[in-house]
Amino acid sequence: MKTTGAAIIGCGAIAPLHARAIASIEDARLVTVVDSDPVQAAQSAQDYGCEGLTDYRELLERPDIHIVHVCTPHHQHAGMAVELLNAGKHVLTEKPMALDVPSARLMQAAAEKAAGQLGVVFQNRYNEPSVRIKEVIDSGSLGNLLCMKGVVTWTRSEEYYTNSSWRGRWATEGGGVLINQAIHTLDLLQWFGGGDLLSVKGSVTTDVLNEVIEVEDTAHACIDFKNKVRGLFYGTNAYQVNSPVELELVFEQGTLQQRRDSLYLWKDGLETLLCEPQTASTGGKSYWGSGHSRLIHDFYAHIREGRRFWIDGSEGIKALELIAEIYKSSGSRNRVPQAQHS
């Protein structure tokens, strides 16, 4: 069996999850890690028993590198991904796929012409409650979906931003709680809602960290889909703990609720537990969920079998487009019809 050579660019907090996932794939090997900080590159290379580099462009002509994981700050995703795709590499990028929608479209265009595939890490789609919810929606077993809500109440300290030069800035993070923390929940809402937006009205504020960051720490939105499903969203980094994400989906014949990462069905006056979170540690923060490894394994399986990975550029951009609509609505204080921006 041919070994798939992998590289990780960016050796920050999320990189260890990628490295562990690669190590658990039988026919894959982490060949190289890259970080612009030579100390970080050397330490990560030692930790993973591989080569360490400081310039990702050295990967472009390497025939032993087949898949590259982009785990860098947001503003670096698009440029790196386009270069890597043009060089024939498969690219798996952390969220958001780009800093903004125009940059994401450049990535899409590069992927459409490339020999390699582009995948976007929206690992919450692989968490068991998300999988079960989508199965119920697609099967129609509870009738049509009527409405849904998603609530993210997390915390980010002043030090979280001051210790990292790229966070909290429009030019490098692209936004605040919407594009960094709550993007996974927004992606789930648009995925559950069918993806076709009718209109969006939202607002963003900086409730706690206005002396520290340029971007928002709190946001809410009312999202109407073309299939008449309505989604409500609230997200904040101004809480004092990281609470589990809450989801509720109301159907004609019952309601699904995700609470503390468990999924419940309320139907005919009775509540039934459908699934519980995994108890084994994922090696990351508890609220990240357990989907990272599943997504990475699935991406590698698609590459190995020559199949198109399903969370590609066209899927990855949808959450960014929704976020852009919320920002536009907040700026204008009016509901933004999606048709005006298509």
TrEMBL record:
| UniProt-listed InterPro entries | Gfo/Idh/MocA-like_OxRdtase_N (IPR000683), Gfo/Idh/MocA_Oxidoreductase (IPR052515), GFO_IDH_MocA-like_dom (IPR055170), NAD(P)-bd_dom_sf (IPR036291)
Looking up Pfam families in the UniProt record yields:
GFO_IDH_MocA (PF01408), GFO_IDH_MocA_C3 (PF22725)
Domain GFO/IDH/MocA-like oxidoreductase: from-to ranges: 132-256
Task: Report the domain of life of the source organism.
Answer: Bacteria
What are the residue boundaries of the Gfo/Idh/MocA-like oxidoreductase N-terminal domain, all occurrences included? Answer: 6-120
Q: Protein name, please?
A: Gfo/Idh/MocA family oxidoreductase
| Protein source organism | Paenibacillus tritici
